[in-house]
Amino acid sequence: MTAKTFQPIAPRPAPVRTDGPVAWAQRNLFADWKTTLATLTIGGVLLWYLPQLLNWALFTAMWTPDAEACRADSVGACWGVVAEKYRLIIFGRYPFEEQWRPLVATLLMLGLLVASCVRFFWKPWLAVLWAVVLAVFFALMYGDVLGLTRVETDRWGGLPLTILLASLSIVMAFPIALVVALGRRSHLPAIRSFCTIYVELVRGVPLISVLFMASFMFPLFMPQGVTIDVLVRVLAGITLFAAAYMAEVIRGGLQAIPKGQVEAAATLGLSYWQTQFKIVLPQALAMVVPGIMNNFISIFKDTSLVTIVSLYELTGALGLALNSDADWRPYKIEGYIFIALIYFGFCFAMSRYSLWVEKQVNKSKLR
Fold first, then answer.
1. Among 18, 101, 290, 323, which residue's Cβ finds the most Cβ atoms within 10 Å?
2. CA 116, CA 179: separation in Å to the nearest integer?
3. What are the tens digits of pLDDT across the range 132-152?
4. 106, 314, 137, 302: which is closest to 211 by C-alpha?
5. Could you tell me if 195 and 246 are in contact, meaning their C-beta atoms sit under 8 angstroms apart?
Protein backbone atom coordinates (compact mmCIF):
# COMPACT_ATOMS: atom_id res chain seq x y z
CA MET A 1 0.00 0.00 0.00
CA THR A 2 1.25 3.42 -0.89
CA ALA A 3 1.32 6.00 1.85
CA LYS A 4 -1.04 8.96 1.33
CA THR A 5 0.47 12.37 1.60
CA PHE A 6 -1.46 14.86 3.76
CA GLN A 7 -2.87 17.67 1.62
CA PRO A 8 -4.01 20.66 3.72
CA ILE A 9 -7.17 22.45 2.62
CA ALA A 10 -6.55 25.89 1.19
CA PRO A 11 -7.54 28.65 3.61
CA ARG A 12 -10.89 30.24 2.90
CA PRO A 13 -11.34 34.00 2.79
CA ALA A 14 -12.54 35.65 5.94
CA PRO A 15 -16.31 36.21 6.12
CA VAL A 16 -17.54 39.58 4.96
CA ARG A 17 -18.71 41.81 7.75
CA THR A 18 -22.45 42.41 7.39
CA ASP A 19 -22.97 44.98 10.13
CA GLY A 20 -21.46 48.32 11.02
CA PRO A 21 -21.28 51.64 9.12
CA VAL A 22 -18.82 50.38 6.49
CA ALA A 23 -20.99 47.38 5.60
CA TRP A 24 -24.07 49.60 5.55
CA ALA A 25 -22.36 52.04 3.18
CA GLN A 26 -21.22 49.25 0.86
CA ARG A 27 -24.70 47.76 0.80
CA ASN A 28 -26.71 50.98 0.41
CA LEU A 29 -24.39 53.55 -1.17
CA PHE A 30 -21.88 51.62 -3.29
CA ALA A 31 -23.67 48.39 -4.20
CA ASP A 32 -23.16 48.79 -7.99
CA TRP A 33 -22.00 51.43 -10.43
CA LYS A 34 -25.43 53.08 -10.68
CA THR A 35 -25.76 53.42 -6.91
CA THR A 36 -22.16 54.65 -6.67
CA LEU A 37 -22.77 57.27 -9.38
CA ALA A 38 -25.91 58.51 -7.64
CA THR A 39 -24.09 58.63 -4.30
CA LEU A 40 -21.21 60.63 -5.71
CA THR A 41 -23.55 63.02 -7.56
CA ILE A 42 -25.72 63.72 -4.53
CA GLY A 43 -22.65 63.94 -2.31
CA GLY A 44 -21.07 66.49 -4.63
CA VAL A 45 -24.20 68.63 -4.61
CA LEU A 46 -24.33 68.50 -0.80
CA LEU A 47 -20.66 69.41 -0.52
CA TRP A 48 -21.28 72.42 -2.76
CA TYR A 49 -24.45 73.75 -1.13
CA LEU A 50 -24.18 72.54 2.47
CA PRO A 51 -21.38 74.98 3.47
CA GLN A 52 -23.38 77.87 2.02
CA LEU A 53 -26.49 76.74 3.89
CA LEU A 54 -24.61 76.40 7.17
CA ASN A 55 -23.00 79.79 6.64
CA TRP A 56 -26.43 81.39 6.09
CA ALA A 57 -28.23 79.53 8.87
CA LEU A 58 -25.55 79.52 11.59
CA PHE A 59 -22.27 81.31 11.10
CA THR A 60 -23.48 84.67 9.75
CA ALA A 61 -26.98 84.54 11.24
CA MET A 62 -28.43 87.19 13.51
CA TRP A 63 -29.90 85.76 16.73
CA THR A 64 -30.97 88.88 18.62
CA PRO A 65 -34.52 90.24 18.17
CA ASP A 66 -33.35 93.43 16.48
CA ALA A 67 -34.93 94.20 13.11
CA GLU A 68 -32.56 97.10 12.44
CA ALA A 69 -29.52 94.84 12.94
CA CYS A 70 -31.02 92.23 10.64
CA ARG A 71 -31.52 94.78 7.87
CA ALA A 72 -28.02 96.15 8.35
CA ASP A 73 -26.43 92.68 8.18
CA SER A 74 -28.51 90.92 5.52
CA VAL A 75 -25.96 88.18 4.73
CA GLY A 76 -27.26 85.47 7.05
CA ALA A 77 -30.56 84.36 8.48
CA CYS A 78 -32.41 86.53 10.96
CA TRP A 79 -33.53 84.17 13.73
CA GLY A 80 -34.41 87.19 15.81
CA VAL A 81 -37.87 87.02 14.22
CA VAL A 82 -38.46 83.78 16.13
CA ALA A 83 -37.18 85.29 19.37
CA GLU A 84 -39.44 88.30 18.86
CA LYS A 85 -42.61 86.59 17.61
CA TYR A 86 -42.49 83.11 19.12
CA ARG A 87 -45.33 83.72 21.58
CA LEU A 88 -47.63 84.94 18.83
CA ILE A 89 -46.59 82.02 16.61
CA ILE A 90 -47.07 79.39 19.34
CA PHE A 91 -50.25 80.75 20.94
CA GLY A 92 -51.86 82.79 18.15
CA ARG A 93 -54.33 85.49 19.16
CA TYR A 94 -54.80 84.14 22.67
CA PRO A 95 -54.60 87.04 25.21
CA PHE A 96 -50.97 87.71 26.01
CA GLU A 97 -51.37 87.87 29.77
CA GLU A 98 -53.32 84.57 29.80
CA GLN A 99 -50.95 82.51 27.67
CA TRP A 100 -49.92 80.38 30.63
CA ARG A 101 -53.26 78.65 30.22
CA PRO A 102 -52.69 77.26 26.69
CA LEU A 103 -49.13 76.39 27.75
CA VAL A 104 -50.35 74.22 30.63
CA ALA A 105 -53.17 72.79 28.52
CA THR A 106 -50.78 71.84 25.72
CA LEU A 107 -48.32 70.19 28.11
CA LEU A 108 -51.18 68.17 29.61
CA MET A 109 -52.34 67.08 26.16
CA LEU A 110 -48.82 66.11 25.08
CA GLY A 111 -48.35 64.16 28.31
CA LEU A 112 -51.62 62.33 27.65
CA LEU A 113 -50.55 61.46 24.10
CA VAL A 114 -47.19 60.14 25.29
CA ALA A 115 -48.89 58.10 28.03
CA SER A 116 -51.30 56.65 25.47
CA CYS A 117 -48.32 55.34 23.49
CA VAL A 118 -46.77 53.53 26.48
CA ARG A 119 -47.84 49.93 27.10
CA PHE A 120 -48.04 50.45 30.87
CA PHE A 121 -50.97 52.84 30.45
CA TRP A 122 -52.99 50.54 28.19
CA LYS A 123 -55.56 49.95 30.90
CA PRO A 124 -59.34 50.54 31.03
CA TRP A 125 -58.80 53.68 33.10
CA LEU A 126 -56.94 55.31 30.17
CA ALA A 127 -60.34 56.33 28.75
CA VAL A 128 -61.13 58.06 32.06
CA LEU A 129 -57.76 59.81 31.91
CA TRP A 130 -58.59 61.07 28.42
CA ALA A 131 -61.92 62.45 29.63
CA VAL A 132 -60.29 64.22 32.59
CA VAL A 133 -57.45 65.75 30.57
CA LEU A 134 -59.81 66.94 27.83
CA ALA A 135 -62.10 68.52 30.43
CA VAL A 136 -59.13 70.33 32.01
CA PHE A 137 -57.86 71.34 28.55
CA PHE A 138 -61.14 72.98 27.55
CA ALA A 139 -61.56 74.52 31.00
CA LEU A 140 -58.14 76.16 30.74
CA MET A 141 -58.54 77.25 27.15
CA TYR A 142 -62.12 78.53 27.32
CA GLY A 143 -62.16 79.69 30.91
CA ASP A 144 -65.33 81.05 32.55
CA VAL A 145 -64.70 78.67 35.47
CA LEU A 146 -62.68 78.97 38.68
CA GLY A 147 -62.23 82.67 38.09
CA LEU A 148 -60.65 82.30 34.66
CA THR A 149 -61.68 84.87 32.08
CA ARG A 150 -63.57 83.59 29.05
CA VAL A 151 -61.63 83.29 25.79
CA GLU A 152 -63.80 82.46 22.78
CA THR A 153 -62.70 79.64 20.49
CA ASP A 154 -62.10 82.01 17.57
CA ARG A 155 -59.14 83.40 19.55
CA TRP A 156 -57.55 80.00 20.06
CA GLY A 157 -54.61 79.38 17.79
CA GLY A 158 -51.04 78.28 17.32
CA LEU A 159 -49.68 74.98 18.55
CA PRO A 160 -52.48 74.28 21.11
CA LEU A 161 -55.09 74.44 18.35
CA THR A 162 -53.00 72.25 16.04
CA ILE A 163 -52.55 69.57 18.71
CA LEU A 164 -56.21 69.75 19.72
CA LEU A 165 -57.53 69.36 16.17
CA ALA A 166 -55.07 66.59 15.27
CA SER A 167 -55.55 64.60 18.49
CA LEU A 168 -59.34 64.69 18.59
CA SER A 169 -59.63 64.08 14.85
CA ILE A 170 -57.46 60.97 15.09
CA VAL A 171 -59.23 59.64 18.18
CA MET A 172 -62.71 60.14 16.71
CA ALA A 173 -61.89 59.16 13.12
CA PHE A 174 -60.44 55.75 13.98
CA PRO A 175 -63.63 54.11 15.33
CA ILE A 176 -65.68 55.67 12.53
CA ALA A 177 -63.22 54.30 9.97
CA LEU A 178 -63.39 50.88 11.60
CA VAL A 179 -67.17 50.76 11.36
CA VAL A 180 -67.18 52.07 7.78
CA ALA A 181 -64.55 49.53 6.70
CA LEU A 182 -66.63 46.70 8.15
CA GLY A 183 -69.73 48.22 6.59
CA ARG A 184 -68.20 48.18 3.12
CA ARG A 185 -67.71 44.42 3.49
CA SER A 186 -71.17 43.83 4.91
CA HIS A 187 -73.58 41.39 3.25
CA LEU A 188 -76.45 43.85 3.82
CA PRO A 189 -76.87 45.97 0.65
CA ALA A 190 -78.21 49.04 2.47
CA ILE A 191 -75.26 49.25 4.88
CA ARG A 192 -72.70 48.48 2.19
CA SER A 193 -74.17 51.10 -0.17
CA PHE A 194 -74.32 53.78 2.53
CA CYS A 195 -70.67 53.24 3.52
CA THR A 196 -69.55 53.17 -0.11
CA ILE A 197 -71.36 56.42 -0.92
CA TYR A 198 -69.86 58.10 2.15
CA VAL A 199 -66.31 57.06 1.30
CA GLU A 200 -66.50 57.91 -2.38
CA LEU A 201 -68.26 61.22 -1.75
CA VAL A 202 -65.72 62.40 0.82
CA ARG A 203 -62.71 61.18 -1.16
CA GLY A 204 -63.99 62.96 -4.24
CA VAL A 205 -63.61 66.45 -2.76
CA PRO A 206 -60.59 68.26 -1.25
CA LEU A 207 -60.42 68.95 2.48
CA ILE A 208 -60.60 72.70 1.86
CA SER A 209 -64.08 72.34 0.38
CA VAL A 210 -65.16 70.23 3.37
CA LEU A 211 -63.91 72.89 5.78
CA PHE A 212 -65.60 75.61 3.74
CA MET A 213 -68.91 73.74 3.80
CA ALA A 214 -68.63 73.03 7.54
CA SER A 215 -67.80 76.63 8.37
CA PHE A 216 -69.94 78.70 5.98
CA MET A 217 -72.58 76.49 4.35
CA PHE A 218 -73.64 74.23 7.21
CA PRO A 219 -74.96 77.11 9.42
CA LEU A 220 -77.37 78.05 6.59
CA PHE A 221 -79.18 74.72 7.04
CA MET A 222 -79.59 75.13 10.80
CA PRO A 223 -82.86 76.44 12.33
CA GLN A 224 -82.95 80.12 13.07
CA GLY A 225 -81.29 80.90 16.37
CA VAL A 226 -79.36 77.62 16.51
CA THR A 227 -75.60 77.96 16.10
CA ILE A 228 -72.74 75.51 16.46
CA ASP A 229 -69.28 76.74 17.34
CA VAL A 230 -66.94 77.01 14.37
CA LEU A 231 -64.32 74.89 16.15
CA VAL A 232 -66.81 72.05 16.53
CA ARG A 233 -67.84 72.27 12.88
CA VAL A 234 -64.24 72.26 11.66
CA LEU A 235 -63.38 69.37 13.96
CA ALA A 236 -66.32 67.38 12.60
CA GLY A 237 -65.27 68.11 9.01
CA ILE A 238 -61.67 66.98 9.55
CA THR A 239 -62.84 63.88 11.42
CA LEU A 240 -65.25 62.74 8.72
CA PHE A 241 -62.72 63.47 5.99
CA ALA A 242 -59.96 61.52 7.75
CA ALA A 243 -62.28 58.63 8.58
CA ALA A 244 -63.09 58.06 4.90
CA TYR A 245 -59.43 57.68 3.96
CA MET A 246 -58.62 55.59 7.01
CA ALA A 247 -61.55 53.28 6.29
CA GLU A 248 -60.00 52.32 2.95
CA VAL A 249 -56.67 51.56 4.64
CA ILE A 250 -58.40 49.28 7.15
CA ARG A 251 -60.49 47.65 4.42
CA GLY A 252 -57.28 46.71 2.63
CA GLY A 253 -56.17 44.87 5.77
CA LEU A 254 -59.53 43.13 6.09
CA GLN A 255 -59.33 41.86 2.51
CA ALA A 256 -55.89 40.37 3.22
CA ILE A 257 -57.29 37.97 5.84
CA PRO A 258 -57.84 34.48 4.33
CA LYS A 259 -61.52 33.56 4.02
CA GLY A 260 -60.77 30.20 5.62
CA GLN A 261 -60.16 31.84 8.99
CA VAL A 262 -63.63 33.38 8.99
CA GLU A 263 -65.16 30.05 7.99
CA ALA A 264 -63.21 28.29 10.75
CA ALA A 265 -64.51 30.82 13.28
CA ALA A 266 -68.09 30.20 12.12
CA THR A 267 -67.52 26.47 12.47
CA LEU A 268 -66.44 27.01 16.09
CA GLY A 269 -69.70 28.86 16.73
CA LEU A 270 -68.28 32.38 17.05
CA SER A 271 -70.64 35.22 16.28
CA TYR A 272 -69.90 37.90 13.67
CA TRP A 273 -68.56 40.41 16.21
CA GLN A 274 -66.56 37.76 18.07
CA THR A 275 -64.95 36.76 14.79
CA GLN A 276 -64.10 40.35 13.92
CA PHE A 277 -62.69 41.42 17.27
CA LYS A 278 -60.85 38.21 18.17
CA ILE A 279 -59.60 36.94 14.80
CA VAL A 280 -59.97 39.33 11.86
CA LEU A 281 -59.31 42.83 13.20
CA PRO A 282 -56.14 42.05 15.24
CA GLN A 283 -54.48 40.62 12.14
CA ALA A 284 -55.87 43.21 9.72
CA LEU A 285 -54.83 46.21 11.82
CA ALA A 286 -51.35 44.75 12.33
CA MET A 287 -50.92 44.52 8.55
CA VAL A 288 -51.83 48.15 7.91
CA VAL A 289 -49.95 49.88 10.74
CA PRO A 290 -47.80 51.91 8.26
CA GLY A 291 -50.89 53.03 6.32
CA ILE A 292 -52.75 54.03 9.48
CA MET A 293 -49.77 55.99 10.80
CA ASN A 294 -49.37 57.66 7.42
CA ASN A 295 -52.99 58.77 7.73
CA PHE A 296 -52.35 60.09 11.25
CA ILE A 297 -49.40 62.15 10.01
CA SER A 298 -51.52 63.48 7.14
CA ILE A 299 -54.22 64.56 9.59
CA PHE A 300 -51.67 66.39 11.71
CA LYS A 301 -50.35 68.33 8.72
CA ASP A 302 -53.78 68.97 7.21
CA THR A 303 -54.77 71.01 10.26
CA SER A 304 -52.88 73.87 8.60
CA LEU A 305 -55.82 74.23 6.19
CA VAL A 306 -58.17 75.54 8.89
CA THR A 307 -56.70 79.00 8.25
CA ILE A 308 -59.25 79.29 5.43
CA VAL A 309 -62.01 79.50 8.05
CA SER A 310 -60.13 82.07 10.18
CA LEU A 311 -58.79 79.63 12.77
CA TYR A 312 -55.14 80.52 13.10
CA GLU A 313 -53.31 77.32 14.01
CA LEU A 314 -49.52 77.09 13.83
CA THR A 315 -49.13 78.06 10.16
CA GLY A 316 -51.86 80.67 10.28
CA ALA A 317 -50.45 82.18 13.47
CA LEU A 318 -47.11 82.65 11.72
CA GLY A 319 -48.77 84.61 8.92
CA LEU A 320 -50.69 86.60 11.50
CA ALA A 321 -47.50 87.41 13.40
CA LEU A 322 -45.49 88.57 10.39
CA ASN A 323 -48.11 90.19 8.17
CA SER A 324 -49.12 92.56 10.96
CA ASP A 325 -45.56 93.84 11.49
CA ALA A 326 -43.77 95.44 8.53
CA ASP A 327 -40.41 95.34 10.33
CA TRP A 328 -40.36 91.53 10.49
CA ARG A 329 -42.33 90.76 7.34
CA PRO A 330 -39.23 90.18 5.13
CA TYR A 331 -38.12 87.26 7.32
CA LYS A 332 -40.88 84.79 6.58
CA ILE A 333 -38.40 82.11 5.49
CA GLU A 334 -36.91 81.91 8.99
CA GLY A 335 -40.40 81.75 10.49
CA TYR A 336 -41.50 78.96 8.17
CA ILE A 337 -38.32 77.01 8.90
CA PHE A 338 -39.14 77.33 12.60
CA ILE A 339 -42.64 75.86 12.27
CA ALA A 340 -41.35 73.29 9.76
CA LEU A 341 -39.02 72.01 12.47
CA ILE A 342 -41.98 71.75 14.84
CA TYR A 343 -44.00 69.78 12.28
CA PHE A 344 -41.00 67.59 11.52
CA GLY A 345 -40.44 66.84 15.21
CA PHE A 346 -44.01 65.63 15.71
CA CYS A 347 -44.17 63.69 12.42
CA PHE A 348 -40.78 62.06 12.99
CA ALA A 349 -41.83 60.97 16.48
CA MET A 350 -45.01 59.44 15.03
CA SER A 351 -43.06 57.57 12.36
CA ARG A 352 -40.59 56.19 14.95
CA TYR A 353 -43.50 55.04 17.09
CA SER A 354 -45.02 53.35 14.04
CA LEU A 355 -41.81 51.37 13.54
CA TRP A 356 -41.90 50.30 17.18
CA VAL A 357 -45.50 49.13 16.84
CA GLU A 358 -44.60 47.19 13.69
CA LYS A 359 -41.83 45.38 15.54
CA GLN A 360 -44.19 44.51 18.37
CA VAL A 361 -46.91 43.07 16.13
CA ASN A 362 -44.37 41.17 14.02
CA LYS A 363 -42.80 39.34 16.97
CA SER A 364 -45.17 36.40 16.50
CA LYS A 365 -43.93 35.95 12.92
CA LEU A 366 -40.30 35.69 14.05
CA ARG A 367 -40.87 32.61 16.21
1. 101
2. 22
3. 999 999 999 888 888 888 888
4. 302
5. no
At residue 107, does pLDDT exceed 90? yes
Is the predicted pLDDT of residue 225 greater than 80, yes or no?
Answer: no
Average pLDDT over residues 65-83: 80
Mean pLDDT of 213-239: 81
Judge contact between 244 and 206, C-beta under 8 A: no
Mean pLDDT of 283-296: 88
pLDDT mean over 300-306: 88
